[in-house]
Amino acid sequence: MRKIIECVPNFSEGRDLAKIKEITDAIESVQEVSLLDVDPGKATNRTVVTFVGSPDDVIEAAFRGIQKAAEIIDMSRHSGEHPRFGATDVCPLVPVANVTMEETVEYARKLAKRVGEELGIPVFCYEFAAFVHKRQSLANCRSGEYEALKERISTKEWKPDFGAEKWTDKVARSGATAIGARNFLVAYNINLNTTSTRRANAIAFDVREAGRVKREGNSITGKVVKDKNGEPVRIPGTLKKTRAIGWYIEEYGIAQISINLTDITVTPVHIAFDEVTEKARARGIRTTGSELVGLIPLQAMLDAGKYFLRKQQRSTGISDEEIIKIAIKSLGLNELTPFDPKKKIIEYLIEENRGEKLIDLTLTRFNDETASESPAPGGGSISAYVGSLGAALGTMVANLSAHKRGWDNRWEEFSNWAEKGKYYHTALLNCVDEDTEAFNKIMAAFGMPKLTEAEKTERKKAIRAATRNAIEVPLKVMQLAHDSMEVMQAMAEIGNPNSVSDAGVGALCARTAVEGAYLNVKINAAGFDDSGYLTSAIEKAEKLLAEAKKSEAEILKMVYKKMNG
């Protein structure tokens, strides 16, 4: 599964569009990143840029953007309404998919180190990437802004984590940069069947983490209760990592609860929606839908859809598309404006920008492309696709079993099997394009020029790396298809008896995928010069093939037994 992080650098230029374009061009010079948004502000004289991609690509693009900003922005001449202390003022990295916060912190520090060492810019690591507690706060790092930087960087307390520690003409021009790692923030509005801002605010205070100030007697006009230090006592809200306020939207003629979910791993959108719904109901108000401002990670939408499916005691092992439909309907995301998953979900937006893949083709086009004179897609991609079909059949039997009349109390058991089958189905489907990409890398490596001895060495390294990858991909297909047979075996044994033949066909497909991928491992291994790795890879492949054949025979024996009564 592809690792994706988001980067949201803030550059201290919001008025000169030509300079902004130079910065975004530098970012986009890394072709594998997707530029999602450029938001310049004249009053703040600041531009917020949002782009995403794999971690290494993102930090390379961020470095190039920071480098360009330092070249064309002179902080000694900068003014604007927003706090700032550098040409690239802040540069947070945000984990989006298949990457942990701990990994993101390492990437942030890697970027900070490179910016400090290669560009000489003072860098402060903040939020999760901070080395000391005091520097977690961006406000602390940026205290006094650019004007205080000259004195601060030479002190022991505020010595930069990386980069210049003394004021020079270069630093005077670039200022400092704060580089950090933070959680994904979701801006989310929940619609109410009222026009009252006051009532909307009351609901917002019920749920937001900061809650409301405690008062004596009347909760609105009563005297504020204070603690022994003279500070107001607060009644906390019910949702952690949540900021909220009520407001009236004239365009729609309704009041909303406007929420910032600062950590969706703590309070996801579906929990926020249900909690606001409950608090609104207690005040005689209904939620009618909601609105997502900006983008959201795929996993957040899948979590929402599965949450509502579980409440209905329905299987969650269905397609992502169907799960997202449930999420959209349950959250009422279409109430005010159409919600297009391809435009609102980060991963889908990235894939759309990357162009068409093999798995996006129709069955006919995929078949025709396979039959064409092009060598790819070939046997490796077909093996992965056949394996994906086998896992899909096992998943189908699990889903049918979860909905079988009289088996209502077993819905969760079969939902778990369907989830497992869906995992293999999706992973194998992704391998269809991965196998073709591996083949293309080999062809590209062989096509490298051989003009100098250095280039010959690089070409040899590239061929070796591409060949090893071309062995690893079918090995992965073998492992996934082999492991997926667990689902078919379970469904043949305990699944809906009316679909036992489907479990059998799934097993046939899985074994075919294993054996087909085995052929690819063997042919790609021919001539590979690492005998130690090769011996291990071939032994693993042969073991997987033998086990898959054995599993296929056991499953088919069970299938025929049930079919024959």
Short description:
With 565 residues, this protein is of the alpha+beta class.
Question: How would you characterize this protein structure?
Answer:
The two termini are 42 Å apart. A hairpin with a 4-residue loop joins β11 and β12. The protein has 565 residues and is of the alpha+beta class. The chain has three domains: 4-181, Formiminotransferase-cyclodeaminase, Chain B, domain 1 (2-Layer Sandwich), CATH 3.30.990.10; 186-350, 2-Layer Sandwich (Alpha-Beta Plaits), CATH 3.30.70.670; 358-563, Four Helix Bundle (Hemerythrin (Met), subunit A), CATH 1.20.120.680. α15 (411-446) packs antiparallel against α16 (453-494). It has helices spanning 17-28, 55-72, 101-119, 138-141, 145-152, 169-174, 197-207, 269-282, 298-311, 320-331, 341-344, 346-354, 363-371, 379-402, 411-446, 453-494, 500-525, 531-563; strands spanning 4-7, 10-11, 34-41, 46-53, 88-97, 123-127, 177-181, 186-192, 212-213, 234-235, 242-249, 254-261, 287-293. Strands 1, 2, 3, 4, 5, 6 and 7 form a seven-stranded mixed beta sheet that branches. Strands 11-12-8-13 form a four-stranded antiparallel beta sheet. Strands 9-10 form a two-stranded antiparallel ribbon. The longest helix has 42 residues, at 453-494.
